[in-house]
Amino acid sequence: MGPSKAHGSWHAAMGRPGAPATGHRAPVSLKFRSYMSWKVFRVGLGRLIFGMVAVALLLWGGGIALAQEERPEVRLVVEGGLDGWVDPHWPIKLEARIETDILLVGELQVVQGQELARLEVEVPAGGARAYEVVVAPPVDQRVILLRVIPEGGDQEAPVASAFFRPRVAAKEILVGLVGVPRLEQVLGEVRSAVSGEPITPVRMENASERLERGELHQLSYLVMDQPRPLAAGTISWLRGGGRLVTTTAALEMMGLDAVWWGNFPGVDAEIGWYGVGEGEVLALDALSGHPARLWASLLRPAQLSGSQQIPLIEEPMSLTQAALSVENETPGYPWLPLVVVVYSVVVGPINLWILRRRRKLEWAWITIPALGLVGVVAFAIVGTGGVNRTFWSHGTVQVSGPDPQARTGMVAATSRARTMEISFSPEWDVYPENLANIAGDSAQPTITRSGVYEYDLPSLGWLSVNAFRRAEPVEVKAAFGGQGVEMTNGSSGPVVMWGVHAYPRVAVRGALEPGATGSISWQEVLTSTSRWQFHDAFWGMDAQDTVENLSEHWPIVIGSLVNVARESGMVDVPSFAFAVTEHSISDVMVDGHTQEVPGLKLDLYPISVDRMGETGWAHARPVWLDEAFRAGGFEGAPVFAELWILSYRLPTGLSVPPRLVLGGLDPGFVGLDRAVAPFDGEEVVDGTEGWEAWDWVAAEFVPVDIDREMDAARIVAPSGEVLLRVSTARLGVSPLTAVMTWGDAP
Fold it and tell me: Model pTM?
């Protein structure tokens, strides 16, 4: 009984909480299960599940973060222009910098509207590489998309992409700053006293290469204090119409052939005003310490982007379309009739004579078809071998002057599928072009790092590129005098045609042989019966010298090239002489060999007003339009604007008073009444019709009477510039037709 009782007491003690301990201890596993059961029931099952879910989410999120941290990345950074500011007329140079954690081999795609260009890229792991790509001038400030596609990757799944939105100065005056960062804040708070436009300063970092090449066309002014000779490109930009603000000490060291115009009027400080070609220089004692009102008086709006004159022909074509319009001769085969006769004799009499001699006339069923097949193959080989399987052509417009420029549209069309590699001279800024309205399949290039454009041309396919470059030496010379224009052909080939265009008149001459000289008088231009449209000057040749053997397409091609020059800002004057030559381009390499590209070149020689002596006329150059019009985003000639500021350039030191002529030089061109009838009760100021002139002495606009001669002492600056403001609400004609004349001009 003893042992049994003791055993029962141990079991009772273990089953009862708080039982006194005995000499025996419970197993560890049993105690742990008892403890966990007590804890679980105390915490609750819901809290336990919540904790487990939280821990799982934490572990999953950490894995994601770790995976993202370990995933290789490709980064793309794009820069262009001056802090994004570009010239609307020039191609845009973009620098695309690719940084990657892994080895990247693929292509950089550049999408601009309907254009697509490809650039081969290769970046080592953990490295970076910069690529330069040239794209077309901006259209409506359209965004340019760049994306990196790895080799063999999905075209719609780039590993990196970036956007570049070009900015064009349309509502501000863009001023580039070199070495004068302290002016950035001062100029950023200034508005022009002439137009009220804000000044937008842009600091030019590392500007040496840009100054050397003269890539400053997006600027209205360049402000810098560097007492050393200017780079050749900067001088060319300045002579072509640029504006430079510097110090007197720096100007003496720049080596410029400047003409002294006098002190800048209407300001309290003595500021030298100089002319350099078509450009100007303002020289101050120092560039800092001047009040805002001084800068407001000095900085004036420049000419608006694009040509504002009526185009020479309607619906102007591009350079590429002009190139496609050039005629090419079909290869001739003078021996073809003899070959046909010989073939007929061989297939007929000779074949039958041989078979009769061999007494095998029944073989004629075999020999005649066989000889026919051989003849067809032979004709096919000879015929296709005599045809140029790749057609090349170009249309080029070149402008002489202090800032000579040339622009070329080049096309190649092939009758068979082929792969072609093209490279260009380093002086060319080339970008591909795609014209959807031309029949055939156009090809977009793949560009290698060495600057080679590779095209995979399909059968009946074509390619097109545009190139901007400095002009070549011109062997056809134009001389201007008080009597007219004299053209001399110093080249080895003939001038197809030449003439003078003094808006809205055109006088045309025919071919000019090598070494020959021709002339056209100003009087002949003014009395020409040709209309303002360029092609009318060719179709109505009765009033001009008879021009024989004119190809009918040439007037359209020439007019298109002129429109390209004017709309792209190459020519901002409405009067110029021109000469057309058949010109071959020889600095293009195709598949490693020099390619001669035939085509037409149009040389333009701007006629400045100081070349016309004491008689002449100057046309309006719009420099400002009302804010409401510009905010509307209209394209083309801004004929619907209600408030204008127009600039005219007269000869310096003009001795005769100027006058304003509405409707230009062609009375039949106006097409509208001189003024709109006044409304009931409306007060009309006689003679003014809303015209005001900038008084350079008083630094304000004052009303002018357009029926009288103007006071040149106050409204004509020492530079010859005249600024007129007009409201078109009371004007019956477009202010673009208002011409300033002097002397005996009508």
Answer: 0.74
